[in-house]
Amino acid sequence: xxxxxxxxxxxxxxxxxxxxxxxxxxxxxxxxxxxxxxxxxxxxxxxxxxxxxxxxxxxxxxxxxxxxxxxxxxxxxxxxxxxxxxxxxxxxxxxxxxxxxxxxxxxxxxxxxxxxxxxxxxxxxxxxxxxxxxxxxxxxxxxxxxxxxxxxxxxxxxxxxxxxxxxxxxxxxxxxxxxxxxxxxxxxxxxxxxxxxxxxxxxxxxxxxxxxxxxxxxxxxxxxxxxxxxxxxxxxxxxxxxxxxxxxxxxxxxxxxxxxxxxxxxxxxxxxxxxxxxxxxxxxxxxxxxxxxxxxxxxxxxxxxxxxxxxxxxxxxxxxxxxxxxxxxxxxxxxxxxxxxxxxxxxxxxxxxxxxxxxxxxxxxxxxxxxxxxxxxxxxxxxxxxxxxxxxxxxxxxxxxxxxxxxxxxxxxxxxxxxxxxxxxxxxxxxxxxxxxxxxxxxxxxxxxxxxxxxxxxxxxxxxxxxxxxxxxxxxxxxxxxxxxxxxxxxxxxxxxxxxxxxxxxxxxxxxxxxxxxxxx
Amino acid sequence: xxxxxxxxxxxxxxxxxxxxxxxxxxxxxxxxxxxxxxxxxxxxxxxxxxxxxxxxxxxxxxxxxxxxxxxxxxxxxxxxxxxxxxxxxxxxxxxxxxxxxxxxxxxxxxxxxxxxxxxxxxxxxxxxxxxxxxxxxxxxxxxxxxxxxxxxxxxxxxxxxxxxxxxxxxxxxxxxxxxxxxxxxxxxxxxx
Lengths: 521, 192
Fold this sequence. Notes:
The structure holds 2 protein chains of 2 kinds.
Chain A: H1 18-23, E1 32-37, E2 40-45, E3 47-49, E4 52-56, H2 57-64, E5 67-71, E6 76-81, E7 84-88, E8 94-97, E9 102-104, E10 110-112, E11 115-119, H3 121-130, E12 135-138, E13 143-146, E14 153-160, E15 164-172, E16 177-182, E17 185-190, E18 196-197, E19 209-215, E20 219-224, E21 228-233, E22 237-239, E23 242-251, E24 288-293, H4 310-329, E25 332-335, H5 345-354, E26 359-366, E27 376-381, H6 384-392, E28 399-402, E29 408-411, H7 424-441, E30 447-452, H8 455-458, E31 464-471, H9 475-482, H10 484-507
Chain B: H1 3-33, H2 37-50, E1 53-61, E2 68-76, H3 80-93, E3 110-115, E4 120-125, H4 128-131, H5 137-152, E5 160-165, E6 168-169, E7 183-184
Helix pairs in contact in B: 3-5
């Protein structure tokens, strides 16, 4: 039987605080953060000011027992906690910490009425270092975790095989669970103080799982439909710092989606279901690719002497590439934009993360002050201080854990925005393959392979490269970039590189241990 | 004409000439007294040439357009790391003499420089660094690393550079390079 795979993945970046969902308030996109303490939850109102989310020092003072003192003569505001201080100056984005250290904020201290407002990043950058308990700010879920509170991130993926409907939960960090049936619903209880979760709606008319939601403080409720017969669960298995739990909902024999039985009984015999997925077994190494056409909207990117714009070239090639990969390789391809829209860097990476993409390719066109400069370049992320930060901010002890595809991997948790840090080797390997295929199949003689701290790659939680197809500032390259023939040759080379990368991944563990040297022809 | 009439005509003529001269002095005098612009520039140049100077490496776009070429130039001396950093960046953002090509967008002005004890320099620039930027990854990288190289390679106390625009943090200059943290020197962008 052909498996109908309906995969929805939610990554931490897109998560919405459980409390909001539970209270029926919906996603908390503006208006407040939620502080999670051992003692419970506290709202922290936010104010939108010139595109920035700000919080009042008075509110922070109440929540965190801070002292706020205004020094009119010095035109400064001092925030104190015990013997630690942060000195802020209006219209100045730098704050001075105890010991003379300066920290940078994305916006300055602002007076509004009788209140002082600071950007929400003040919490992680200024308050966390001086506070005597751990403070973790999760901007995506608008959550501030204070102290030793267990708040795992939960993602879900659905897989409908026709005879069974599987729900696979990924819990980071690893969290123990217990699954029980209570009448027409399954209840998953987690050993946690709160959940950081948002589940996509189950496919419509599947009649097995009709709804799924998180309930405060630590429970997931799965509403069962008339096609449900029984269930079974896998033994939770570690995958890096996460734990994977599959709940398989077995269906009543002969019933298909959208055709509920006259009388459904939980005791009805289930058709033999395929075995539960075995974690560690081989899997398709590339199932989803996200193509990212650079720039868009008011951001035209680089411009050519003939009037071409980077945003138009990248969109045209992205459309061709999506079509080429889907038709030739049968891999699901998503694009971060399919029109002239302006999208910020985090939203692009989030799309790839939320869809559990296995590869992220950002398309760009280059520009140089020297009109003669021409040729292609492939960038992967360089770590320098970024990588050091990633390791420093690790929230889990490094440990060797089993991973998909067999073998072990030395793993540590990093901040979401530094997700690429754990995929550097895969990205480097793919960049080398793109270079090889561009030279072989597209006939591009000048292809530079480089590493740099690229903003659009930092948050991608999968192998990712930024591909500069040529210099639009060069008149010859500009003509080439606009031609269908050249665009098709780029698509062909990238498709070949994806095939080679898939083979590369299939030869070894899902995340390569070392970059592969491209095979000589 | 009697001698008396002749005297009246002469004195009247002198009075007119003196009046015209007086009016001319009142309205045009300040301009005559002021130093002309070229003279001012020459004076400033003379004053500058008298100021203490150091030799520093400034960075310009290499012939192949993908790297930075170090060029040793005289830069005004500044007392201490922060003052010297300001003088170096002021010289670096100034339009260069041809055939040098700068990766700093035209019109960019230095607003302030801060240096943390850790060695991170925050270089606050005017909005032209972004609004006049031509775009493209290479251009953006060279713009940022021009400033990074000018400070870290001339001033050992500075190990990282973060660009601010009008006092505010920025994600990128042109959509590619991550400017949310200080950048460290990277030799791959320097032409050997």
